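Figure-free illustration: sequence to structure, shown twice.
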Amino acid sequence: MRQVWLFFLLIVLAAGCTGVTPTAAPSVPSPSPSAIPLPTRTAPPPPARATLVSTFTPVPTQIPIILPTPLPPPPPDATNTPIPFDKLLVDVHLTVPGLGLDRRLSGDVAGHIRIEDGASGAEAQYNNQSNVLLELRLGLADLSLAPVPDGCDFCVQLSYELGLTEESGSGWLQDEALLASLENYLAVAIGPHFPPDTLAGLRRSASPFAPAHTIAVTGDGRFWSWLATSNQINEPVVTAVTQPLLAQLISLSIDSFSNNYSVSCRGAPVETLTINQAGQAKTVSIVCPEFSLPSTLQPLYLQMDALTKPLLADVALPRPIAAFPLTAVLDYRRFDGARLTLHQDGTAVVISGAQTITNAISIDQLHGLTAVLWDSGIIEPGLTSFGSLVTTTVSSMALRGPGGVYDGQWPPTSDFTGLAELDTLLDSFLAALPLLED
């Protein structure tokens, strides 16, 4: 019975929870379209809530994981030993006792080079020469020096020491490349070497046509000559060839010379001319003498140039002929194609078409004609016109005077006094051409 009552009680409770379905209300007809709708009441908004302003938030990327870098091991204890910048790296001593040459080159770890001339006392210092010192060390490390022959005062003698490796050597220098390199480096640094008591000396640097070479005439009349590549200097000789040169020195006014006569010419060496006159010395730098040398220095230079010929006979290559010869003082190219070249000894060369004749004028006539042209003001320095293409509308001229080589260019109608005299001289030479044909 007890279970029946409990079952009945659960049924009643279930019915109370679900409720009883009410009876449906009677249906109400829908309002007509003309009926006024009843006002509706809008439910109040929900209470405001505090919100953030809407902004753009990028998509988060993956954050890299940074691992700590292990610290390097601590350095060893400093030794406090400074770099020996002043330690000797290269020391070279070059001598030729018979020539009076005594030069030293030394360099340190910092790349400083010091050059000293034991004969003249000249010296020079250069920085940032590490490359030069390295090349010199490499060359000396592989160098083999023969013993100097007994009594060979004109042999090139070399002694050297290499710092850090403590290598050294001495003997007779016969390596041509090292001979030429040392001669050039030392000559550029402190000037070329000339024997004591030199009255006139000429040194030319190397060029595509000849190695560097030097000649000199000393007060006792001896003539000196040597190549930069020679391991043994020629002993000086007394020769009558130097007498005209010594006579020419007496007539010079060295105060009138410039320190530099240079024109840019392809393949031209750098030349150094030294002149000593009554204890007064003059050093002149020359480049391309054909187009730079003044008429006042031309005679002496020509004599010295002639003295170099035997020295270079077996080693030099022929140089191209210059448009303005070294011996010329005037070159006139007329608009009609005729050309007149006057040389310092009075020789006159005339070219017309395929014909060439050689004649001569007096030295007085030559000086008079060139002086008129030089003083006329119709020529200027700079070599801006000479050598240009000669046409039927222009004439050109180069003239060597006391100030160097000047040039000018004119139309056929020009009536300058100097040109008129030059035309007269040229026409007189051209008049002889038909006679030569006969």
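We now fold a second protein in the same way, so the two outputs can be compared directly.
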Amino acid sequence: MAQYEHIITQPVFFLFVAFSFLLALGYFWGRRKNQAISHSAFEDLIKIFRPQEQKFTNIGGAIGYHANLAIKKKGGWLSRVDATITLLPRHSWLYLPLSKCIRKYDRLFLELYLKNTPEEECHLIESRYSRFAGTKIRNSAKLQKEEVVWGKYRFYLYSQSAETRTRLLDFTARHPDPGVIRHIAVVPEQKKCFLFMIPAMGKVAENLRPVVNWLPTLLDLKK
């Protein structure tokens, strides 16, 4: 032991121990924080969709979770909701700054499986989010595109008809703050609606509920 005494008395050794302690502390803090965010988001989804069956899966250690919500309500417009949440690596303080630069924020993706095929495709997508990888709108060439201001953000509005455009603009007027909503999409060829949100604690239900209440009127343009 005496042969290592000169090492453990060096200032750099104490710095190494302190640094290791901070990393360990960060790991447990970040893991608990991510679990709290995902739990809050999924609790909000259950409140809104009231599924008859639900299944939750960890898909990425402390940074990824998935939920399948089965909705068997008769006469409803949904059959299932799939939710995937990917979180910043708060448990890894060494990688967290880089991840914030690249990914920016936590992400909550929702796939709403529809019982009936929608009449038209449309999108409301925040302009900065639209530049991220994987957010390309496949049928954009067939849709009318314009830039609109929703709250303090700039969104691109993609519509297939004047009626769709009017209903999208009416929704943004009645709900002037998108909150954590960054993308609303209706895709008839997949018989789905897609939503992208930032799963800020306490904000998912608040911002999602108006969208879910409004979507049935958007899906049926014959009304």
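Summary for the second example: Residues 61 and 105 are 17 Å apart (CA to CA).
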